[in-house]
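Chapter summary example.
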Amino acid sequence: MRARILGSAAGGGFPQWNCRCETCEAARTGTAARPRTQSSLAIRGAVGPWFLANAAPDLRQQLEPLAAEPANGVRAAPVAGILLTDAEIDHTAGLLLMRESSTAIRAYGSDAVRRALTDGYPVLPMLARYCGVDWRRLDPGDSLVIDGSSLEVESFAVGGDAPRYLAGAGADVEASGFVFHDRSTGGVLTYLPGLARLDDDVLGRLAASDVALVDGTFWRDDELVRLGISERTARQMGHVPLSGPGGTLEAFSRLERPRVILVHVNNTNPVLLERSPQREAVLRAGAEVAYDGLEVEL
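The structure predicted for these 298 residues follows.
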């Protein structure tokens, strides 16, 4: 199995276009932090083509390294399908950039995500007028073998609220995590760009993984509140913070098996500063901070 982190930042990217926080300014000057695009992953098994996990608004530039690989045909797509963990705009807007596809886009996701992308944010009806969509249902608790690949994927619920564009609509859309198992090599990779709860089920899946790509959105629960950016805490936004009691770093310190890499890191998170005490704390907990282009093979 081979995985390439196409984008490692949360929604808005890093630096965010309208943000002047310390970390964004450091990225702009290039002195202490490297820029990052919005969260997306490319993955392939020992057998078969590349697939995407989420489609970020930065997808065109993210796909260029994959497009440089040998392919058959002038309009050969570098990926064979997209798996969606949720219906958030920063994980689905890239679907619209794939409208030039010569074949229907193969997409995997829960029925709740399909409804959100049909009624609330009508990406799927729009694509139907261009290339079409071949939707494959993958609800939490489901497991399926991806056609043409040695990968088997299992979806599981990780909590969180429906996207804000569905506010007041009574929609029940929570985020999913994916466990990828390569049936040829036995490698196991878990992808969790959004994580609203750290229960025994989630911890068990992490402990059974070789590599775990885990939500690292916020350092503190009150990170945005302290900066005067929002009145909502990290947990209220559907993200377990890294630090503090019950935070993910505390949980990571008890895990022995997986290589843990933080993804979906918000532009305000000081772990993005390469020589910060928060980055040191991440390393002491046995984890890493992802960057665009990082590849792992297992």
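To summarize the output: The chain has one domain: 2-290.
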